[in-house]
Amino acid sequence: MTSPLRAQFIPVEIWPDDRGVHINAHGGGVLFHGGRYYWFGEHKIAGAAGNAAHVGVHAYSSTDLYNWKDEGIALAVSDDPGSDIVRECVIERPKVIFHPGSGRFIMWFHLEMKGQGYQAARVGVAVAEQPAGHYTFLHSFRPNAGYWPDNATAAQKAALADPAAMAALDTLKFNGGDNPEVPQLPVLARDFAGGQMARDMTLFVDDDGAAYHLCASEENSTLHISRLRDDFLATSGRYVRVFENRWHEAPAVCKHGGRYWMISSGCTGWAPNPARSAVADSIWGPWTELGNPAVGVNPQNGLGPEQTFGGQSTFLLPVQGQKDAFIALFDLWRPQDAIDGRHLWLPVRFTPDRITVEWRDRWDLRVFAGAM
Ligand code: DGJ
Q1: Which residue intervals of the chain bear CATH 2.115.10.20?
Q2: 42 and 91 Cβ atoms separated by less than 8 Å
Q3: What average pLDDT score do residues 55-62 get?
Q4: Which residue, judged by its Cα, is nearest atom 1 of ligand 1?
Q5: Superfamily (CATH) of domain 250-372
Q6: CA dist., res. 133 & res. 136, Å (int)
Q7: In the structure, what pLDDT confidence band is assigned to residue 162 with cuts at 50, 70 and 90?
Q8: Mutation probe of ligand 1 site: the residue of 91, 270, 308 with most atoms within 8 A of C-beta
Q9: What is the per-residue pLDDT for 119?
C-alpha cells in the first residue's frame, strides 16, 4: 500500500513512509546530498527489547521533507558474536556526513556493547559509497585516547600521577544521571589512556569543511567537542570540555548568523526533561547557556517546556533553499514499546540572543516565509 502524499508536519502522530509504515528512524539525523534528504535513525522493534539494536540503522529519503521513501537498512547489525555491532548491542543517534575527499558517506553512532549496559560508551564508524548505503562497519573506539582537551587544567592532568586513585575509580559504577559524586572524581584522567566516554552524540560539519563530534562524556557530566581527523574516520586528538558538570544529553547543533547554536536536554534516561539551549561564536566555545527553548504545550499529552512536549532533541536540520530555516527534531521515546516512538519536528525561530522552538499541531515550510 502506498501512502497519500503529505504536505504538512503533524508532530507526534504516526508518520507513514511511502509504504504506509510508521517511519522507523529514531534518534536520527538528516543528510542532504544530490538533491535529496536522507534520514538515518535507530530501527526499533516492538516492546522494551526494542531499545537494543536488533536490526540496525534505517534510512529513508525525501525531496520535500514531508514524504519519505523507505531505503531499507543502511547499516545492519551482525550475527558474528565477535563483532562490536552484534545483534542486541545498542546503536543510538546515528549521524551521516559526506566526505568530499573520498566521495564516501561516513556514519557515526553511539555504540554500547551487547550485555554491558551503557558502560562501553564508544563511538562506532561505518562507511558507504552511496548515501543510503549499504554501510560497512569500520571500527569502534573511545575518542581522544592519550590526548588532553585544550582546556584541561593542571589539576586534571596531575590526577594521572596517582595510579592507586585511578584504579579505585575504575571499580566505581555510576548510573549515567546527574549525581554529586562524579564532579569530585578525576574521570577525565581515568579515561586519558583508554579514551574518553562517548554517549549521546551528534556530528557537525562547518563551512570550512572541518567536522566535529559532540558527545556526552565523563559519565554524562560534561560534553566533549572533538575535531574529526581529515578523513572523518576518527577523532583527531583536538577537543574541549564544555558545560562542565551540567549533565547535558542529546546535543543538536546548527550554524546561523555566523554563530553556533545548540539544543540539548538534561539527563533523565528515556523520560523527558526541560530542553536547554546555548550559543557560541566558535564551535570550541565559550558556550553561553540561553535556557529552555521550548514554547507552548503539546495538547496530546499536556506537556509543555518543563518536559519539552514529551520529547528529547536529536538534530537541527537546515532546510535547503530557504535562508535561515531550520527544523528541530525531537524524539518522543516509548521505551516500553520502542517501535512506537514518535517524531516531533518543529520550526526553529531565532532572535539575536535566543533560539526558540514553539509547539504547533500542524505546520508546513511556509512558516519560514512568515505565512503561518
Ligand atoms: C537518553 C539518551 O538521550 C538516549 O539516546 C538513550 O541513551 C537513553 N538516555 C537511554 O536511557
Answers
A1: 1-141, 250-372
A2: yes
A3: 98
A4: 269
A5: Glycosyl hydrolase domain; family 43 (2.115.10.20)
A6: 8
A7: confident
A8: 270
A9: 95
140 HSE (CA, 13 A, CB side): 22
Distance CA 77, CA 89 (A): 8
**What integer pLDDT is reported at residue 1 of this predicted model?**
60
Rounded CA-CA distance 28/15 in Å is 14
pLDDT tens-digit map of 330-371: 999 999 999 999 999 999 999 999 999 999 999 999 999 886
Q: How far is the centre of ligand 1, averaged over its atoms, from the C-alpha of 247 (Å)?
A: 12
At residue 192, does pLDDT exceed 90? yes
Sheet of strand 312-318: strand arrangement: 294-295, 354-358, 342-351, 326-332, 312-318
For the chain, percent of residues with pLDDT exceeding 70 = 99
- Pairing state between β 26-33 and 36-43: antiparallel
pLDDT recorded at residue 269: 96
Task: Tell me the CATH architecture of domain 1-141.
Answer: 5 Propeller (2.115)
pLDDT digits (tens, 9 = 90+) for 195-233: 999 999 999 999 999 999 999 999 999 999 999 999 999
pLDDT of 303 reads 98
Q: Which atom of ligand 1 is nearest to the CA of 249?
A: 3
- Please state the three-class secondary structure of 340-370 as a single string: HCEEEEEEEEEECCEEEEECCCCECHHHHHC
Confidence of residue 166 (pLDDT cuts 50, 70, 90): confident
Pocket of ligand 1 (CB under 6 A): 27, 92-93, 200, 249-250, 269-270, 312
Pairwise CA distance, residues 17 & 29, whole Å: 16
CA of 161 to the centre of ligand 1 (A): 34
Distance from chain centroid for Cα 54:
20
Report yes or no on whether pTM surpasses 0.90: yes
